Amino acid sequence: MTMRTSLIALAAGGLLSVGQALASEDCGRVQIADMNWDSATLLANVDHFILTHAYGCDAELVAGDTIPTGTSMIERGQPDIAPELWTNSFPDALDRGVEEGRLRIAGLSLSDGGEEGFWVPTYMVEENPELATIEGVIANADLFTHPEDPSLSAVYGCPAGWTCQITAANNYRALDLESEGFALVDPGSGAALAGSIARAVERQEPWFGYYWSPTSVLGRYDMTMVDLGTGVDEEHYLNCTSQEDCADPRPTMWPSSPVQTVTTNDFAERAPAAYAYLESRSFTNDEMNEMLAWMDENQADGEFAMEYFLLSYEDMWRSWLDDEAADRVAAALGL
């Protein structure tokens, strides 16, 4: 029996009667935001399984994205849980939601935080160390040929609609890269952006652009973050670089991003044991990179990756739960 069918069969066979086991907690119906990148969809599916089988929640996954999900949680109280929010993308709104008693920050999804920046392949830096700096990249602009116009150099930005599209574009303007011959390339999708890195590295070709960690791409390919020579101006980043209407951006490195699990206050109050699980559930970047590489290698979606994780990393997820809740999850898995 395959891993996927074994879990489906266990669930269908009713090996866990959560209604009887969890009469003391009224978790109720719970919406979990399933974001459109691998680490977030893995977390959403793990939370869905554990909340269902450990705490008797009537859990469902709903499509989400950073700003729309955060805004909806503040204004409408739905979804109940955002398993992975890069919360520096909208700090003012998030702070207001917490202050007004609408939201709770359960804890860190990624205990190390997230990294963002402009990157080049490490093999380029090994050949020419100055490429680890923005001055070196600019001085060697002719290496980074635009894929559609050889007269231009290319810096890859973030897909339209993503928050990082704003920050990458503002740093592109702040560094005045256009005057240095660089055009900002919209890759069209996260997959296309990852593919551009993979294609360049596998061919040992130049590449320069935005990316973030943890990801399977930066876990698989050795990349060096470009030093902008500015350090981190966190106040300017929050007030201008991350704002779409930033009129006069200044160059700044991206601050380390707190990557947090956020819930509605209503969920935290009605399901304290389930909320306590979310307070404990966290991955280091190395742990997440390992999972993301597995997902990429196996073309696994969030559900399949969840099954692999729960069956392969029992010690890890048991550490997030009390003994009774962990045993209920183990029973549902047939462990």
Automatic annotation (TrEMBL):
CC per GO annotation: ATP-binding cassette (ABC) transporter complex
Any GO molecular function: transmembrane transporter activity
InterPro entries in the record: ABC_Gly_betaine_transp_sub-bd
Key word Coiled coil present: no
Segments traversing the membrane: none
Domain of life where this protein originates: Bacteria
UniProt entry tagged with the keyword Signal: yes
Domain ABC-type glycine betaine transport system substrate-binding stretches: 29-310
Signal sequence interval, chain numbering: 1-23
Keywords: Signal
Protein known as: ABC transporter substrate-binding protein
